[in-house]
Specification:
Bact_transf, WcaJ protein, about 450 residues, single chain, two-stranded antiparallel ribbon, Rossmann fold, alpha/beta, 3 domains, about 50% helix, 14 helices, 4-stranded parallel sheet
Length: about 450
């Protein structure tokens, strides 16, 4: 077969592994005590670095990878590498100079990160200026998503995609598909981007068979009204291929540990540093205005659809429909102090106890009332996917304008789209970004915060 000009060099990733291991071992020799510069320790740091990298996908960086995702991989690699080094030193050597190991690990990750980012940006610049390392692509179909992808390819040459042709499938679809296949083979096309709204199942199978048999990459563009997974993953049960719609980062043990550790630390900081003194003040104000409990609890659906009691500061007068009807604008049930704590999201703070107990996470899809979950599950495509991860106090949808009352179908559909994007693209850095945006929006004030 001909040379794949659109692919990265097969030597690039092994070269990255080798260079990083050289940096780690050289720095260990220079910065650490002689007692540590033994074969066993150098073998340990090399093997542990590779194992961590495999688990966090440290070297899984592609032309379409976002810089935020790269930084998240670096952060995860750094945290876990620090933990393993301290575990080794504490168990085997009773090492009592933590500053030395922190200096070594930090300098190593900084140098490796600079090299990693340099290669990433160098390749982007190389594509934009010299036209190298390009993938030749065609698009099949019409619609808004097709036009947006066309503009993306044309306006972002540094990503390394060369849009060669567009088949709109107008007129005789069968002839158009045959022409597309011939064009792909004759012009050495690397990837086909196909709009699902313009083809039927039988035609979709033909595209899959064609790309499989000719070693081409096939990618799909969903309908405008559909909520589809971004990732498709293939596993094998024996020799039987089984396709799953998504690859969820939080299914990996190492990511679960990182996220749970962050949740525990962050919730303890809020509970001890804020709720310890804020709760008595709010308790006085809430009970002064209306009789009833300080806290309000409501059954909601969490991970794997399990129900749990979600806690909030009570913001409404006690009423029989609190578990059935969402709060609306100018809702007469809301008290004066309740209006303030809802506007500033202070009413959500008791949910950090839910986080500490393990029912929720700091960041994740917002949990709905049980009655609403059942309603949306029947009417909104892919709604139940959001229950693959723990619900959160805040989430990606909420920071993008989809918080509070669901006024129409568009609100809940877009909320689900953001939730699916989050669970498929989770990273610790994304969580930190969402937390920052949540605090910023609370200070600024939001239209739907009522």
């Amino acid at each position: 077969m001909g040379k794949h000009t659109g692919r990265y060099s097969g030597y690039l990733r092994p070269f990255s592994y080798l260079l990083d291991l050289i940096i780690i071992n050289v720095l260990a020799s220079i910065l650490l005590l002689d007692s540590l510069n033994v074969v066993y320790y150098h073998l340990f740091v090399s093997v542990s670095w590779i194992i961590i990298a495999w688990n966090v996908g440290f070297y899984e960086v592609y032309r379409f990878t976002k810089v935020l995702e790269i930084l998240s991989k670096i952060l995860n690699q750094y945290v876990l590498f620090v933990i393993l080094n301290f575990a080794y030193l504490g168990y085997f050597l009773k090492f009592s100079e933590p500053s030395q190991i922190m200096k070594f690990v930090t300098l190593a990750i900084v140098l490796i990160s600079l090299v990693k980012l340099f290669i990433f940006y160098f390749l982007r610049r190389f594509r934009a200026v010299f036209g190298g390392n390009f993938r030749r692509v065609v698009i099949v179909g019409e619609g808004k998503n097709v036009m947006e992808l066309t503009d993306f390819f044309n306006e972002n040459p540094d990503y390394g995609y060369n849009l060669v042709s567009h088949f709109n499938l107008r007129g005789n679809k069968e002839e158009q598909i045959k022409s597309c296949f011939s064009f792909v083979l004759d012009n050495k096309i690397d990837e086909i981007y196909c709009s699902l709204s313009d083809i039927e199942n039988e035609q979709l199978n033909r595209f899959i068979d064609f790309t499989d048999n000719n070693l081409k990459v096939l990618k799909f563009l969903p309908d405008d009204d559909e909520v589809l997974s971004r990732n498709m993953k293939f596993d094998y049960y024996g020799y039987i291929p089984v396709a799953s719609l998504r690859d969820i980062p939080l299914d990996k043990t190492v990511n679960m540990i990182v996220k749970r550790g962050f949740d525990i630390i962050f919730s303890l900081i809020v509970i001890i540093g804020v709720l310890s003194w804020l709760t008595p003040i709010l308790a006085y104000l809430i009970k002064k205005e209306s009789k009833g409990p300080v806290f309000f609890k409501q059954r909601r659906n969490g991970l794997d659809y399990h129900e749990f009691d979600c806690y909030k500061f009570r913001s409404m007068r006690p009423n029989e429909i609190a578990d059935l009807e969402q709060v609306s604008k100018n809702d007469p049930r809301i008290t004066n102090i309740g209006r303030f704590i809802r506007k500033t999201s202070i009413d959500e703070l008791p949910q950090f106890f839910n986080v500490l107990l393990g029912d929720m996470s700091v960041v994740g899809p917002r949990p709905h009332m049980v009655s609403h979950t059942e309603m949306y599950a029947k009417s909104v495509d892919k709604f139940m996917v959001r229950h693959f991860v723990k619900p959160g106090i805040t989430g990606l949808a909420q920071t993008n304008g989809y918080r509070g009352e669901v006024e129409n179908d568009k609100d809940i559909i877009n909320r689900v789209k953001y939730d699916i994007f989050y669970l498929e693209n989770w990273s610790l850095l994304l969580d930190l970004k969402i937390i920052f945006m949540t605090v910023f929006n609370a200070i600024k004030g939001e239209e739907k915060a009522y």
